[in-house]
Amino acid sequence: MEIQERKSGKIYALSSTTSVPEWLGERARRNLAKSDSAFRHRITLLQDLEMPVSSNKVRQSPDGRFLIVGGTYSPRIRCYELSEMSMKFERYLDSEVVDIQILSEDYGKLAILGADRSVSFHAPYGNHSVIRLPTFGRAMAYEKTTCDLLVVSSGKRVSPGAAATGGQAMGEIYRFNLDEGRFSQPYNFTSALRQKKGVDADDTRVLQLGGSCIAVSPTHSLSAIGAEDGTVRFWDNRAPVNSSQSDVDLTPFLNLDVASATAGHGFFDENSNSGFPGEVTSICFDASGINMCAGTKGGNVALYDMRSSKPLFIKEHQYGLPIHTVQFHSGSGTVLSSDPKLVKIWNAKGSASSSRGEWNDNDGGFSDSRDDEGVGGALGSIVANVEGTADFNHFMISGDSNDPEGHNSGLLVCTGEQEKLQSFYCPVLGAAPQWCSFLDNITEELEEKDGALDQSAAGDDTGAVQTETVYEDYKFLTRAEIDTLGIQNLVGTPLLRGYMHGFFIHVGLYNRIRAVAKPFEYKEYRSQKIKEKMEEKRASRIAPKTNPQKINAKVNPDLADRLQAKSGAKTKAGKAAKSLVEDDRFGGLFSNPDFEIDQEAEDFKLRNPSGVASSKVRNDRDMDSDQEDDDNDDEGDFDASGFTKISNENEKWGSESDDDDGQNDFHDSDSDEDGFQGGKIRGELYENKRKSSKDKKKKDAKKKKAKKKNKNVMYEADDYVGGGANAIDIGIGNVSADASKRKKEMSLSMAERLQLQSEESKFVGDTKRLKVTGQGSVKEVTFIPKATRKKLEAQEKAKQEAQKDDRVGRSRRGVKSLGFKTPFKHHQ
User: Fold this and answer.
1) How confident is the model over 254-306, as pLDDT tens digits?
2) Angle subtended by helix axes 557-566 and 572-582, to nearest 10
3) Which of 136, 405, 483, 765 has its CA 20 to 30 A from that of 459?
4) Sheet strands side by side (includes 97-102)
5) Is the CB of residue 90 less than 8 Å from the CB of residue 78?
6) CB atoms inside a 10 Å sphere around CB 609
7) Positive or negative, the Cα torsion across 599, 605, 610, 612?
8) Radius of gyration over every alpha carbon of the chain, rounded to an integer in angstroms
């Protein structure tokens, strides 16, 4: 969709893409959508709104439900149902379409003027009847009051003799009465003669100047016929007409000389164009029946008030081509006039008489002295120019069932010398019809994006939306990317369009350059895709279940935990906490260090006294739990294996009982009002109350500790298999060592065990006895002192070393072994 920028607004070309061949398959159409961006971004206003070669005329039914289009080749008409947005039927004709008139409210009755001097009448079932005209028809109109079909005919050929006598030829307007089904007496008017040279130099033809266009006023029965001599003739259809050809009512009651009024205006080139520039080629009335417009072959449009013979304004088309269609748009107060190159929209109602332009004394009217654009401007000021991709043949303003004439519509449908019918949406004229109301939404979104781009380009970030780096068929490149691709030589050429801090380049050209600059990009892309697929497979494996709602808070973790805990509650505070946790706008509260809560600040303590109290309570509870752990450790110092503690729930040892179980601590209550756990104490006496409660808690803790010490505890001795494990059972020995020793003894033979027992009997005199007194029990154990055991081990070691030195295997006897008290000494 192309957008034409104008000062008064934008014009959207809805059919700027080329037509798709009918023989193209569905698969080929999908491939075309991938490769052709214009085809991909197209807007289909009506399905198959096209002709094989070109289109000539377009009309809308009076009920606003159907659209009739005539075109070629071969000659045909197509009917489109607007509510279904598709073609309803297609009919072939014997000749090309010159004009189309819809005789009923829908497509049920059609009159088609052909280029072969025929008028064919069509019904819903097909072609109903055909009549022949004496001369070729130029245009056609339907008068509802008299049920007459008026056909403007071309001029007749006049004999040279009649032309030499100076006789005047009579032009005719054929009238076919549809009620009676026969021709009535035609309207006639005096026409001038024109000489035309034939193929040979001596062959000179004299032709009568006939009519070229016709219009019937929608408010009063007044018919206007524009002729080739530059005169507009008027007939009053309300006047009774006799069957006599000399009836005065068959002649026009008023002649308006448009050629003289437009003389000297326009850009008609006589060298390139043939014919009379003052010839009236199009004519129309407004809805009120007061104003009338007449277009000429020289590219001029004269605006008239029916009460005056002088034009209010003369609008010039700079191309100097014939004006084929003129139409009033009462909703915007403008006039739409079209030549083969463009449709010009200009104001028909000026804001002040002084702004109409300059008065021309020669023709007694206002000339086109200014081209200011804008709705509501001076008379004749340009609102917009609609340019097409091919020459225009005819246009109409499409409406809907509520506005069949399109007085408040902004949709233009134009026929032309191309396959597709060109359609344009002009929001400056009005809203889109009801059957294509989606155009308003599309254009509003495009305008919002363009407005955001304009604001960002101007440096205004307020209201700006995220802009895209790629739009339509262009890619945005920065200076660094241009240097990377090596296309610095393209800077300054039309291939790179400068914009802000970079350039726009066509996507097709960018892809070709990138393929040359980065030949290994496909390999990198392929490896990246493989890596992504492998990661997807790894992610599909069974993973440990995690809590997706848990907040990963780097800042204010305590607040995050409290909010997470409260978010599951159905209370008012829980709902508020849940909304705070799930809202992304508050994500910075747990990630940005700037939002960290300083709980030591004085302002925080004043605003959140319950939060300060709760933190103190948590600290005190932690200290109390540590003290209780210490008490339990002191109480459990005697954790002897071999003894079992006796507990009796029915008996209480001690003279005092706990009387503090029913006491309530003011710190135990929570408050959900401010998002913190805290106490109920608030006010000026908070500090004094906190100090007294803290002292009271310390006294209570001391009393509990004293009670625990005075409480009697009974232990019961376990049954043992052997008495030799007493030292081990009370914690003196090593259970594992004793078990390994017994296992070793069992693996020895009888002789070795007897020898081991004899060796242990040596230590009987060194065995000591010890009484172990516990809470409620006494045990007697025997043990060998460490000093004695160490001495015996040293002796055993010396004995083994002596045996190693004996070669025979026995220990050597020395002097000391003889038992002398004093060793021998040598005397000199």
Assistant:
1) 899 999 999 888 888 877 777 788 899 999 999 888 899 999 999 999 999 98
2) 120
3) 483
4) 97-102, 110-114, 118-123, 126-132
5) yes
6) 19
7) positive
8) 56
